[in-house]
Design a protein that fits this description.
The protein is α/β, with parallel strands linked by helices. The protein has 14 helices and twelve strands.
Length: 366
């Protein structure tokens, strides 16, 4: 309830704030213009509640409905950011004089920029790139490569089967030795995943070793974790829940940790103890919150997702302050960490200042 009240008050303030600028720029009917903008902004900002209701299965949104809501929410959000940035420039007298002498032109320009940013962010969310990393761990191992995909969030309103086909095609082009799915693959429940035949698509992966997966927090949210795991297994994925998979051909141990949603998950020290001492250890943990544990336990490489790199500016700046590694590559102590921004989106289909990606990791022997 506190979250709802806080968000509602912020929504009211934001809508009034934006409406004031339009009212100030309207010469003939300022009150009518302000009231109209206030209503439009109030509706647009509250699109997020419909998205949350869809995730919680209170209502069902189609992909097209979610796209429309994403555009409305994105436009109102970027408009607010631009007006805040604009008002901060009022500290410079020359700009303040220019703005108030040409208020209509300034507001029109800001509106056009917000609309352009919204459409760019929407298109950018659908364009999946490949981000490459080269890692040379201290422990000897054979050269190999890993393709990591995370945060697909597959449901009716998100990832389409066609888009998944393209992701699998891109992975096959990279010719990795194995592929890992680092959690939040299914959004809450498996019906859409099965109905749209995602298992058949994922089985098209062409890797030297069978693909593996770990569980994220969203597989837990629908309360049907077992069914979600069975659906992933139908796709040919080896789901590691506090389990270890040794690959003797490479001298590598894959440690798949259950998500922190499972409060009884195995301690990392116990999981690490099952790995041969001379094997290179790769920890798959959806959430990068506990990188310090990986460092303390001498893990060689940790692969994670979860953060989306904030998904929309300026949240990427916040994410990088919350986590020891919120996105990309960073060596912490003796542990090489790679955190992906994910191939899909959660909530609005928007990405600004971030990218949808496949992380491709080449591991070179010492």
């Amino acid at each position: 309830m506190k979250i709802f009240i806080t968000y509602f008050l912020l929504t009211i303030w934001s809508s009034l704030y934006i409406a004031w600028h339009y009212a100030a720029a309207a010469e003939d009917y300022p009150h009518a213009a302000g009231a109209a903008v206030f209503i439009i902004m109030l509706v647009s900002f509250n699109a997020i509640w419909l998205m949350i209701a869809s995730v919680r299965r209170k209502i069902r949104l189609t992909r097209h409905q979610n796209n429309i809501l994403s555009l409305l929410l994105g436009f109102s959000f970027f408009l607010m950011l631009l007006f805040i940035a604009n008002d901060m420039l009022f500290f410079f007298e020359e700009y303040a004089f220019w703005y108030f002498s040409r208020a209509r032109t300034a507001v029109f320009t800001i509106t056009a920029v917000a609309a352009g940013a919204t459409f760019f962010a929407f298109a950018n969310s659908y364009f999946v790139r490949v981000t490459c990393y080269n890692i040379t761990p201290d422990k000897p191992a054979l050269d190999f490569s890993v393709a990591m995909v995370s945060d697909l969030h597959i449901d009716e309103s998100g990832m389409s089967a066609r888009r998944m086909e393209k992701i699998i095609y891109r992975i096959n082009e990279l010719k990795p030795d194995f592929a890992v799915f680092a959690g939040d693959i299914i959004e809450s429940t498996p019906e859409h995943f099965i109905r749209e035949d995602f298992p058949r698509i994922i089985k098209k992966l062409q890797t030297r070793f069978p693909p593996v997966a770990v569980i994220g927090n969203h597989e837990y949210y629908g309360g049907r974790i077992r069914e979600n795991i069975e659906a992933l297994q139908q796709a040919g994925l080896t789901v590691l829940r506090d389990e270890i998979l040794n690959i003797p051909e490479l001298g590598v141990s894959l440690l798949g940790r259950d998500d922190k949603m499972n409060r009884g998950r195995c301690a990392l020290c116990d999981l690490k103890g099952k790995a041969p001492a001379d094997f290179l250890t790769i920890l798959l943990d959806h959430n990068p919150q506990y990188i310090d544990e990986a460092v303390d336990n001498g893990i060689d490489i940790q692969l994670s997702g979860h953060t989306h790199n904030g998904q929309i500016f300026p949240f990427n700046l916040i994410v990088r302050r919350i986590f020891a590694n919120g996105y990309g590559y960073r060596k912490i102590g003796g542990t090489h960490t790679v955190v992906s921004s994910g191939a899909g989106t959660w909530g609005p289909s928007l990405r600004l200042g971030t990218k949808a990606e496949i992380a491709f990791i080449r591991v070179k022997s010492v």
